[in-house]
Design a protein that fits this description.
The protein is an alpha/beta fold. The chain has helices at residues 19-34, 52-61, 78-96, 108-119, 139-150, 160-167, 181-189, 196-202, 207-212, 224-227, 230-244, 255-263, 283-292, 301-310, 325-328, 339-353, 367-385, and strands at residues 12-16, 41-45, 69-70, 100-104, 124-129, 153-156, 175-177, 217-220, 249-252, 275-278, 295-298, 314-316, 332-334. α1 (19-34) packs across α17 (367-385) and α4 (108-119) packs parallel to α5 (139-150). The radius of gyration is 21 Å and the shape is globular. It binds uridine-diphosphate-N-acetylglucosamine (UD1).
Length: 386
């Protein structure tokens, strides 16, 4: 391979929109810079997440460069948000003429930018392709299905993804099993994780309470299916309140969840100080909190993978997962919204019968390197071949 990127081949335009994209993109940009030849990159932020807590702190923690372009779309309905990203992304493509667009994950920005690029004849690479929950009520599932149908290169994190894609008629030569870039971020930042006691004290928690209880659990909830219905959210907070009588719980609250607790008048279910409500956390704080937890209860996709990599038992408060390897090989157990199951699996885990699991194949910290090598090879061969 030549030492320099051809002057007539554009950069790779890398798109991020929402919090879970940032930890996936950071190692990819570093791998592009370390590749020979250096792969020129432009970072586009759609602005889907914009709060300091949801955005700026993560950029700092992950050492992400400032975006070259910010589309500043902000919050809106799915239709309006997706449409705004599309409208604002199109002129950026016209102006910058990238060699390809790289998208990650399954948020609205992922699909919106893919759709615009593909229709302009610009190839798209999708990182974290092929994951399926088979639950079309999840907006992310629609984003995954459609993005994978039309993207050119599909980089996967686990082998089950290839079977999902084959079932949808996608040719095997578009699919490349490279491992998990989210775990690249986790491994490269692990030694910089913030001590949980400091995060808890800073958030107004009582480290003595946690010492007395011999630990704490971590909770995150933000899926519309769990937090948008007052009865569901009340039932979940109710069982968490019960659990907190034995094990103090630290919540990192998504803005949607905080708003809904207030809107539905559920503050009385928060048993302070045994339930500590924190704002969304920085990456290094969250990593420290998870690594030190006795149990994690979550509906996040990313936390299912991160707890598996850390060997921390995870209960997923969803009926399904698009990341089955975390259940088959890792530390994850699906408990849905079944209150009795949440209670029972938590008790078993705290009694020392939680899942220990093993780290899945290619979750080794080098996924981004493999993507850089493969993508550069593909783009240069296409360019050279005319
Ligand atoms: C989005 C992603 C979801 C991901 C989640 C992680 C889609 C369809 N969903 O969901 O896959 O797991 O991000 O956080 O793309 N808000 C703020 N500040 C912000 C961003 C959001 O206050 O910086 C509030 C707004 O009230 C907004 C609500 O949170 O209406 C939801 O934000 P939105 O970006 O629509 O979706 P998420 O639920 O965050």
């Amino acid at each position: 391979m030549s030492e320099t990127w051809p002057s007539d081949l554009g950069p790779v335009m890398c798109v991020v929109g929402a919090r879970p994209n940032f930890m996936k993109m950071a190692p990819i940009l570093r791998a592009f810079a370390a590749h020979t030849p250096v792969i020129p990159a432009l970072l586009v932020h759609t602005g889907q997440h914009y709060d300091r807590d949801m955005n700026d702190r993560l950029f700092e923690d992950l050492r992400l460069p400032r975006p070259d372009i910010n589309l500043e779309v902000g919050s809106a309905s799915h239709a309006v948000q997706t449409a705004e990203v599309m409208k604002r992304f199109e002129p950026v493509l016209d102006e910058r003429q990238p060699a390809c667009v790289l998208v990650v994950g399954d948020v609205n920005s992922t699909l919106a930018c893919t759709l615009v690029a593909v229709k302009k004849g610009i190839p798209v690479a999708h990182v974290e392709a092929g994951l399926r929950s088979y639950d079309r009520a999840m907006p992310e599932e629609i984003n995954r299905l459609l993005t994978d149908q039309i993207a050119d290169l599909l980089y996967t994190t686990e082998r089950s993804a290839a079977a999902n894609l084959a079932r949808e008629g996608i040719a095997a030569e578009r699919v490349r099993f490279v491992g998990n870039v989210m775990i690249d971020s986790l491994l490269s930042n692990r030694q910089h994780a913030r001590a949980p006691a400091a995060t808890i004290a800073l958030g107004g928690g009582d480290p003595a309470l946690i010492a007395a209880a011999e630990g704490y659990g971590v909770v995150t909830l933000h899926r519309p299916s769990n937090v948008d219905d007052p009865a569901v959210l009340a039932a979940l907070l109710g069982v968490l309140r019960e659990i907190a009588t034995g094990l103090p719980l630290v919540f990192a609250l998504h803005p949607r969840t905080r708003q809904n607790i207030e809107r539905f008048g559920l503050q009385n279910l928060i048993d302070r100080p045994r339930m500590l409500l924190l704002p969304p956390q920085g990456y290094l704080e969250m990593l420290g909190l998870m690594a030190g937890a006795r149990i994690v209860l979550t509906d996040s996709g990313g936390l299912q993978e991160e707890t598996t990599a850390l060997g921390v038992p995870c209960l997923t408060l969803r009926e399904n997962t698009e990341r089955p390897i975390t259940v088959n090989q890792g530390t994850n157990t699906l408990v849905g919204r079944d209150i009795a199951a949440i209670r029972q699996r938590t008790a078993e885990t705290l009694a020392g019968h939680g899942k220990s699991g093993r780290v899945p194949e290619l979750w080794d910290g080098r996924a981004a390197e493999r993507i850089a090598a493969d993508l550069a090879g593909w783009l240069l061969a296409r360019h050279g071949g005319g």
